[in-house]
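Propose amino acids for all 217 sites.
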């Protein structure tokens, strides 16, 4: 369910709107989720994507994505629609799809610092987590919450290596709050930050939220 839309919400605009400064070195992790906890899509999975880049990197991404979408007359890129030749991709052959997808991936790889994803199967969540005993004073994590923990763990892993550049600057997370359970992520983030070691606390910046309609989808 990878998706993207060129908007003006990246880079300097995000920094100005959320932190009231256009610091070019400020890092942002933009989180995009595909959540099917209601089972309406019968997918059986929850997926959370995260892309990391500073203001300058997001600006570069935005410029190149905008040019790519203009070249192919694409307004919004949904991977599912590309695969099934729906909407903006109606009538596309396999070669054109491959060229577009390759160009999109190349832009992401060249302009942003890194990307990662967390995938959780409903069956695994129920069998290994939800069905187990829960501490009385500990709230049960949602599927989104577990994926969010995995994303943070991955991004902060380089903190073990002092030579890695990810340890040099704070990482700010920007989450869409378009799903009911995502609101609990704000509390989860605060809990993780509060309980983390001092060096990890320095790396974890803020978790401002933005309306889903303004998000990169």
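Proposal:
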């Amino acid at each position: 369910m990878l998706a993207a839309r060129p908007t003006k919400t990246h880079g300097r605009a995000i920094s100005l709107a959320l932190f009231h400064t256009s610091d070019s070195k400020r890092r942002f992790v933009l989180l995009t989720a595909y959540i099917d906890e209601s089972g309406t899509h019968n997918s059986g999975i929850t997926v959370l994507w995260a892309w990391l880049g500073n203001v300058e990197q997001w600006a570069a991404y935005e410029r190149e994505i905008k040019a790519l979408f203009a070249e192919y007359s694409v307004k919004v890129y949904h991977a599912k629609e590309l695969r099934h030749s729906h909407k903006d991709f109606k009538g596309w052959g396999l070669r054109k799809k491959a060229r577009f997808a390759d160009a999109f991936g190349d832009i992401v790889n060249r302009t942003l610092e890194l990307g990662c994803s967390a995938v959780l199967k409903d069956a695994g969540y129920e069998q290994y987590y939800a069905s187990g005993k829960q501490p009385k004073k500990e709230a049960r994590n949602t599927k989104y919450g577990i994926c969010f923990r995995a994303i943070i763990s991955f991004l902060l892993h380089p903190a073990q290596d002092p030579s890695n550049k990810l340890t040099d600057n704070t990482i700010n997370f920007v989450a869409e709050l378009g799903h009911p359970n995502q609101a609990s992520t704000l509390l989860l983030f605060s809990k993780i930050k509060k309980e983390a070691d001092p060096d990890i606390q320095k790396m974890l910046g803020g978790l401002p939220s933005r309306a889903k309609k303004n998000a990169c989808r």
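Residues 7-60+115-214 form one domain. The radius of gyration is 18 Å.
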